[in-house]
Design goal:
This protein is mainly alpha-helical. The protein contains 21 helices and 3 strands. It has 3 domains: 176 residues, no CATH class; 94 residues, no CATH class; 110 residues, no CATH class. A 3-stranded antiparallel β-sheet has the order 1-2-3. The chain is elongated.
């Protein structure tokens, strides 16, 4: 997704009017900082033969401005030659073209805009090619936010490719991340707050733009998601809700999930997700924990620890217990044991429901055939699963015992975790549940007495 429309939206929003100025200043700061320690590739026309030397900066700028003025000439041939000349000059003409853009006539503005897009595209492609082949991982070739990305993801070729896609699709956002990170490294606390507010605002605006494009059925690239994830990793505290929702929506898409399945890209994306997941918004915590179970992201344990309490809804508590069973350790036992007294009902099952476990998947309907009356089920003839059963299964798993010794029908659903139906206890035999808890307590007592 190109950033031109995003910048236009920012300019049009009065609430973010100061942000645009800040972003433009930030871009200058970022380029200045990068110039001190980065090796930038030579771009076409940056120092063409016969052009005034580096000591004659004023003459060079005057020559560039004169060439820009020729874009408005009456002669078509003069305008064409000026266009070719500016393209040959390349990156050196960018600042002057941007400054003169509002002063040009309609055709000249069109030529200047096309030149800016082409020069920046070619400069980016040349910088990207040099960046990919660079051995020194600290060299960024003036591509913004590489140090932040490298610290989070690493410097493998796969991470470099993801980084290039993020810069290509969301350059402004990556520049803002870079400036905020540099301010933090230099311990400029007065600027940190300003830059963080700007980063939050730009990340939220980017997320809103992505959402609008999705509603319009426009494609969203992997680079868009990577840039949002890096912004979420850079921002202190909880990720803005709009950003978390945009990330949550896109990680469920085939484009992202297929990248996660690839070995090299999957490692990089999991590291980005691990930085975002602990900072997600409360409203999407259950989906984040489910997603983490599927793609084996241990960072979800932090979300689980925050959400295993009676104030959360039933689904959130269950996903938290599943995550703790998968990713937790024995330090989580006291927290899990607080759920031993949680008797909220998860499932009430008919005996036939248990017989279907492990059978081939079939499509069933809850509607009875015409003329058939509903079967009367005695209140105590079925099976039930309560939150405390799942808590016990999680605790047993963490201490290294076999849950099947406590729950005879215990099964897992692979990457989705425990099959909660397999924890069913006969409704008419509550003493079985009590004995399971007593057995676990005895095991813990015996272990505590072991020297």
């Amino acid at each position: 997704m190109k950033t031109a429309s995003l910048v236009a939206n920012l300019v049009g929003q009065a609430a973010l009017g100061g942000l645009v100025t800040l972003m433009l200043a930030a871009e200058g700061i970022s380029q200045e900082a990068n110039s001190t320690n980065d090796t930038s590739p030579t771009v076409r026309g940056s120092s063409p033969t016969g052009y005034p030397g580096p000591d004659d900066r004023a003459a060079r700028e005057a020559s560039i401005l004169a060439t820009i003025d020729q874009l408005s000439a009456d002669s078509f041939l003069v305008r064409e030659k000026a266009t070719v000349r500016l393209l040959q000059i390349g990156q050196e003409a960018v600042d002057s073209l941007r400054a003169q853009l509002p002063l040009l006539n309609r055709e000249a503005r069109g030529r200047a805009s096309g030149l800016l897009a082409r020069i920046e595209r070619e400069s980016f492609e040349q910088a990207s090619a040099a960046f990919l082949t660079e051995i020194d991982p600290s060299v960024s070739y003036a591509l913004p936010a590489w140090q932040t990305f490298r610290e989070c993801v690493g410097h493998s070729r796969a991470s470099k490719l993801l980084f290039i896609e993020a810069v290509r699709e969301q350059r402004r956002l990556m520049q803002m991340i870079d400036v905020y990170a540099q301010s933090k490294r230099q311990d400029k606390s007065a600027q940190d707050e300003v830059f963080e507010r700007a980063l939050r605002a730009l990340a939220e605006t980017t997320a809103a733009q992505i959402e609008r494009e999705q509603l319009a059925r426009l494609p969203v690239s992997l680079g868009d998601c990577v840039a949002l994830l890096l912004a979420a990793a850079a921002i202190e505290g909880e990720t803005p809700q709009a950003v978390s929702i945009a990330i949550d929506t896109n990680v469920q898409q085939y484009m992202f999930s297929s990248a996660l399945e690839r070995k090299s890209q999957g490692v990089c994306l999991r590291r980005l997700l691990s930085a975002w997941i602990p900072r997600t918004h409360q409203s999407i915590a259950p989906r984040v924990m489910q997603f983490s179970l599927v793609y084996d992201i241990p960072a979800a344990v932090k979300v689980a620890r925050k959400n295993l309490n009676p104030a959360r809804d039933l689904l959130t508590r269950c996903e938290a217990l599943k995550c703790l069973a998968r990713f937790g350790d024995e330090s989580d036992l006291p927290l899990i044991q607080t759920a031993f007294g949680d008797h909220d009902l998860l499932h009430r099952l008919h005996p036939d429901d248990l017989l279907s476990q492990g059978a081939a998947m079939v499509h069933e309907t809850l509607s009875l055939p015409p003329g058939m009356e509903a079967e009367s089920i005695q209140p105590n003839s079925g099976y039930e699963v309560r939150v405390c059963d799942l808590a016990l299964a999680a605790a047993v798993t963490i201490v290294g015992d076999n849950p099947a010794e406590y729950f005879p029908g215990y099964q897992t659903l692979g990457k989705y975790g425990v099959d909660t139906r397999s924890l069913a206890v006969p409704t008419a035999q509550p003493e079985l549940r009590r004995k399971s808890f007593e057995r676990f307590a005895q095991r813990q007592d015996a272990e505590s007495k072991t020297p």
